[in-house]
């Protein structure tokens, strides 16, 4: 918008310029055809929602505590739910007090609050390459300078973390990363935490996928190793249902009050009814009964996609089999541009997310993300075959172009 645009007197803040409509979302909107096999979504499978349990919990909350459930409540969150979160994280090796738990409206809100409280214009913010796009969107309005830390297939390279010294924090996803799928093993966790401590580099540990493991549970969180220097984010979105919008963060006592003030300004509190429903559902151990079936469903999707990729993808494409989470991350041969190929793939009835949006700087164009949890095994097979066909054609064209250039 310019000053000369006299029909519109509304002037945007500078930070609004950092909020961009994602090109990818725009393309994928075009792709909302019923016949399209979309492996692009970041959504959990709706078949994984414990609908009966949520229905019963809702009825019970409205029967037992209707007025409290419908009234304003404290910004910290529903006390019994904060206690449950603290106890649950205690079982994973984190020793925390419930007073350190802030219930958030999804963990996405936790990212937004952290951006507000920790980032000044020009602050250095360190992230993995690739990293979660939604975190980049949450942090960007604070006008940071993003720096990607060097990563290999095992996660951030500890020996290189010193390069991020001076950053406000390193944001990372140790468990079944979105989009990369990989999980930091125990030695890497120890090494990353030791290097971050040495560099005085605080950590933001985002863990929405830790319970979605298909082979073995992941090692203890980074926050268990460095509680004073780590802010931990969790969510009920992937283990119960994202529409409830209930997540949480765990912060050291020194920063908690500021995050609480930011939360008050953002939305006063997360909906009381939803918090109580979540608490009602988890307090009687539903997750222990429910999660095995979610893992079984998602493991089958992972295995189907792994087999389809092995069968169809052209030589030169690389991927790691994720041991949890929802995504395969595929690297195409150098020179293959996943964003440029998307319209052709959509024409052939298949959609994915091009990888470049997941990089804070130096976007890598030859990669893409596929979800294995939202389409069934038959569609996975057909979708991967169609995608492989599109990549094959692109490689053949590039090969011909190179031959011509060499001739
Ligand atoms: N972090 C990561 C890595 C995610 O993938 C997501 C959702 N896709 C979120 C945070 C936000 O989840 P929610 O707000 O639903 O808890």
Q: Would you give an account of this structure?
A:
The chain is about 40% helix and about 15% strand. By secondary structure, it is α/β, with parallel strands linked by helices. The chain has two domains: about 15-50 and about 290-395, Alpha-Beta Complex (Aspartate Aminotransferase, domain 1); about 50-285, Aspartate Aminotransferase, domain 2 (3-Layer(aba) Sandwich). The strands form four sheets. Strands 2-10-9-8-7-3-4 form a seven-stranded mixed beta sheet, with helices on both faces. A four-stranded antiparallel beta sheet has the order 11-12-15-14. β5 and β6 form a beta hairpin. It is globular and about 75 Å long. Bound molecules: 4'-deoxy-4'-aminopyridoxal-5'-phosphate. 4'-deoxy-4'-aminopyridoxal-5'-phosphate binds next to α6.
Give a short overview.
The chain is α/β, with parallel strands linked by helices and 407 residues long. 42% of the residues lie in helices and 13% in strands.
Low-confidence runs: none
Domain count: 2
Order of helices and strands: HHEHHHEHEHEEEEHEEEHHHEEHEEEH
The named CATH superfamily of the largest domain:
Type I PLP-dependent aspartate aminotransferase-like (Major domain)
What is the CATH class name of the largest domain?
Alpha Beta
Each distinct ligand: 4'-deoxy-4'-aminopyridoxal-5'-phosphate
CATH topology of the largest domain, anyone?
Answer: Aspartate Aminotransferase, domain 2
Percent of residues in helices comes to: 40-55%
Mean pLDDT: 94
Rg over CA atoms, rounded to whole Å, is: 22 Å
Structural class: alpha/beta
Query: How many DSSP E strands?
Result: 15
Query: What sort of overall outline do the alpha carbons produce when their principal axes are compared?
Result: globular
Tell me what portion of residues adopts beta-strand conformation: 5-15%
Amino-to-carboxy terminus distance: 49 Å
Put simply, the count of helices is 13
Q: What CATH architecture label of the largest domain applies?
A: 3-Layer(aba) Sandwich
Largest sheet: 7 strands, mixed
For the biggest β-sheet, the strand order reads 2-10-9-8-7-3-4
